[in-house]
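One such given next:

>
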Amino acid sequence: MTRNKILNRGQSRTVRPCLLACAIGLALTANQAHALNISRGDLNINVDTTVSYGIGFRVASRDDDLIAKSHFDPTIGGAPLQQQIDARGRFSANSDDGNLNFDKWDPIFNAARITSEVDLTYRRYGAFVRGNFFHDFTLNRMDELSDDAKDQVGQRARLLDAFVYGDFDVADRTLSVRLGRQVVSWGESTFLAGGINSINPVDITALRTAGAELRDAFLPLNMLWTSIDLSPNLALEAVAMFEWEAVEAEPSGTFFATNDFATAGGRYAMLNFGLVPQPVRNTDLYDEVCINGNFAASDATIAGGQPLPPQLVALGCTAAFPRARDIDARDSGQWGLALRYFAPWLNDTEFGLFYLRYHSRLPLLSGQAVTSPDVTSGRVIVEYPEDINLWGLSFNTNLGGWSIGGEVSYRDNVPVQIDDVELLFAGLSPLNAVLPAEFERFRSQLGEYAPGEFIPGYERRKASQAQVTFTNLVGPNNWIRADQVALVGEFGATHFWNLPDRDVLRFEGPGTDTGGGPNRVDGGNSRNPVRTEDGFATAFSWGYRLVVAPTYNAVFGTPWNMTPRLAFNHDVQGVTPGPGGNFIKGRRQLTTGVSFDYQARWRLDFAYTNFFGAGSNNLLGDRDFVSASISYSF
């Protein structure tokens, strides 16, 4: 029977094995040779180890439009409105820490890594264990990064997969079982998130690091996975998850981070629309500086590297909205079913039908209203909502030399992030009791709240996503004279049902620094300096991803194989509601690189990535980088 089986090794699928590798640009990782292969009768032990080193450098200068105005002039908050508008920078200080911490040509990662896995099989049973260790020689020594951030990207050893598995005969059928920490991948998506493949969280930082492999990105969870053949062409799968874990997003202050307060190391959100300087850079200093009042202990600087004067540090503390304890999801209540049908009568097409109940892996922002005139008496809260339902339908087939896979998914009870300015103004709304002038009051689409009241920062909505992926492995008869050319293209669209008009409720979009309602310019509200017209989330959005990767064997008369690659991302229309939306209208990304492989053991890789398009809504727009890595598998 030909169908997508879950591999014993914790990898995602066997169909189209090149697709995933080519797709992410970690392409063409060679199959590892077993350094240790012990066979004693029915007992087999395989041990694989990969050692790698990767380094990356920033190659673009900072764009002033992506840095807070107060960085260039820490007193800009006291200037007239038009001077504030004309001043360099943007009306936010909550997305630029990673930008400020790295100058052009600075190393952005500099890491050595070792990953080792052991696969033990005895007849129809087995056990698999995988772990890794890495040390980043740059990030682990950065004074600007908090201890929480360094724990994630500076140095870490961890156990990844650890499960037992076996095949059993049940009523003349084969029952496959896997129990323990593992990765289960459903659906046909290659690039785009938010579809059927929502079981395991992702370590986004691992994907950014040169020398990392695809297997490093998906974080195993403790779960039970089973599959039984109902007929020669029909199989039923079930998965029960015993724990919940969040996605590991870029920690605050690291190069690719675009949120300074909601990820690891985030301690506070800045109010006052980027017009007041941040009190500290390393958030571990926040309590000493802002709570204990030791302003001289601040490490904050302004443009040019000069220390921020103590009186301005104190001002920054008055605009820092502290982060409260996160509200994590519970471990229970997550499970799923999948039905797979292989249709030999329809060009060997495989169909999949899926249901999954899970909790959000992505953080959403809620708040607690202020309890006194001190605005720092309020709180920002990172929350992971529970009980999302997902239904999906997938297919994969071959047509005219192309492997074609697609899926349609429908999610119910999806939490959608409300615009953070509306959340902020709702949190400050108790102060309206002492603000008699309507022009001075904090007006939010969420209404007014009592002191200390919890403010949900999201609404539950329904969403659909459709995508299709085309893959072709072209043989040696091609116009670029390669031994093989891998072509991958994925097209996807997302639609959120019954999303209200933005005049009723605005949902968060990257780079929407100010509110979309009344403002000081039009005389409607003094709290909102200018109106943001575009960039809020839209009901519909779509885009595509392309990869071309030719391979030249025995290049230049050597035993090395060379694979240049070109990857292009384009978000064509709309802004996908967040968190973690796929598309921002006009955003593009171009990656070009080349890898060299030798005897399935040595691999060298060099790459350059350029972010562009979407203006100030593209928070990575000035963070182009180059990277190089070397790895050895044994």
